[in-house]
Amino acid sequence: MRKIKIQSILAAVAGLFLATSCSSSFLDTDPTDAVSSDKVSVPENAEALVNGAWYNLFDYSSTYANIGYRALQCLDDMMASDVVSRPKYGFNSSYQFNDIALSSNSRTEFAWYLIYKTIDNCNTAISIKGDSEELRQAQGQALALRAFCYLHLVQHYQFTYLKDKDASCVPIYTEPSNSSTVPKGKSTVAQVYQLIFDDLTLAKDYLKNYVRSGDNQKFKPNVAVVNGLLARAYLLTGQWEEAAKAAEAARAGYTLMTTTAEYEGFNNISNKEWIWGFPQIPSQSDASYNFYYLDATYVGAYSSFMADPHLKDTFTEGDIRLPLFQWMREGYLGYKKFHMRADDTADLVLMRAAEMYLIEAEAKVRDGVALAQAVAPLNTLRNARGVGDYEVTGKSQEDVINEILMERRRELWGEGFGITDILRTQKAVERAALSDEMQKTEVDCWQEGGSFEKRNPLGHWFLNFPNGKPFTVNSTYYLYAIPQKEINANPNI
Predict the structure, then answer these.
(1) What's the rounded Cα separation, in Å, for the pair 451 and 442?
(2) Is residue 179 very low, low, confident or very high in pLDDT (cuts 50, 70, 90)?
(3) pLDDT (0 to 100) of residue 28
(4) What are the structural domains of the chain?
(5) Does an H or E element contain 63, and which?
């Protein structure tokens, strides 16, 4: 297994927190792009600062299981309903709700630093004075990335806007931090969303003339990415008509995959569905390490992410995704969606057209659009996946919404939407053990040498919260905790 450079979280965290009695900043103020501090405030460095923020978001690491934002996406799915943990290194504790919900946990500290350091770098770029088109485009990308970071925070550190928009959430910082920065108290969920919408509105204006130079530039936000982020934010805040319009705009020009071969892998920035992603090359590939957890068939990998057999049962014959399921290893059901490339790299996805079709459909149904019309985006996606139209005759609005949410679980498996969808819909995690009858059967399981061996099938093995109580709606186990070090250092939080 390849070696990667792991940065020390202790050094980073040491500069992360600010107390009124000490002089250290709550954020590490050194930009991650290597631009010296005496030059960061000039327009020529804006793009470098944005790139630095981006690389911090995806490359900062504290352990092999905490490498950038992709690790948080893995965490979110491991906490939800449809991923079964193969008890190997990486995210076993997440599956058992025994890490991110604890204030004194290394992953909790990692998640907090990762996002707020990225925000701080964005703030530096946004604060630069000037009026050139190049500066405005760089600042537009910084605004979009900052909005993305706050969208992550507002979804993970408090319950959904539709439950209580006035609940206290996280601090908002919009200026670069320095030695005199005063730590802030929590803003409300509504206040965080207001900043998100303000940032995205301005970003959309700044990026109106920006055109990417090629697929390898897909990590740079453009208007399509901004529309996609708006679609997510509108959906989360119950602005259904706006969500549908933004999703339709975001997916314009992107086509859907129609074959199993296209679908398998999820490692290529040039994928025609990918609106936003992070390309990897051998010399810049630390984030690719997350595929050691996601890839079910990579020889020597942890292969921690297996599928719930009950999820497979929701797919219908002819679905191009169905052949990707295969029993393997000790008896777990592998989902061969993610593959490491031969050079140990794998591009990372952040936004796809498929998600936008699903947002559009859900928003239209919730908005009261006639069901036959509202499900058209859903059917476009289903047809591309080799499945016929969803028949709405005799179906209620709730029936159709539940089907769309189920399609999200099928389509977005492993892409980081598991626990946030549970939170936004105020549902409970759903995990069921295999029946006694199923457990007594034998299945042919792929082995790393290419052979097959008979095994008893395995499924979910952790079926309650750590306190032994059943999964419930709006549980604090679903939320990220604020690190204890931050609580101790910030008297205003």
Answers:
(1) 16
(2) confident
(3) 40
(4) 9-433+464-489 (1.25.40.390)
(5) strand 61-63
C-alpha 487/C-alpha 416 separation (Å) is 27
Distance between CA 65 and CA 423 in Å, rounded?
A: 24
C-alpha span between 72 and 352 (Å, rounded): 18
Phi-psi region of 394 (alpha: psi -120 to 50; beta: other; left: phi over 0): left
Per-residue pLDDT at 299 exceeds 90: yes
pLDDT for position 1? 56
Of 99, 57, 58, nearest to 75 (Cα)?
99
In angstroms, the Cα distances linking 14 to 47, 107, 222, 403 are 27, 15, 35, 47
- Residue with the two structure tokens 């859907």: 256
Q: Please tell me whether residue 255 adopts helix, strand or coil conformation.
A: coil
Distance (Å, rounded) from C-alpha 336 to C-alpha 493? 43
pLDDT digits (tens, 9 = 90+) for 70-125: 999 999 999 999 999 999 898 999 999 999 999 999 999 999 999 999 999 999 99
Q: 278 CB contacts (<8 Å, ≥6 apart)?
A: 54, 58, 70, 219, 269, 287, 347, 348, 350
User: Length of the chain, please?
Assistant: 493
Burial of 39 (0-12, 13-18, 19+ CB in 10 A): exposed
Taking only the tens place, the pLDDT of each residue in 6-30 is: 443 333 333 333 322 332 334 343 4
Q: What is the pLDDT of residue 314?
A: 98
Q: Would you give the DSSP letter of residue 456? A: -
End-to-end CA distance of the chain: 42
Q: Which residues contact 101 (CB under 8 A, 6 or more apart)?
A: 108, 476, 477, 478, 479, 480, 481
| Separation of alpha carbons 256 and 68, rounded Å | 28
Contact predicate 287/280, CB 8 Å: yes
Q: How far apart are CA 192 and CA 13, in angstroms?
A: 24
- pLDDT band at 41, cuts 50/70/90? confident
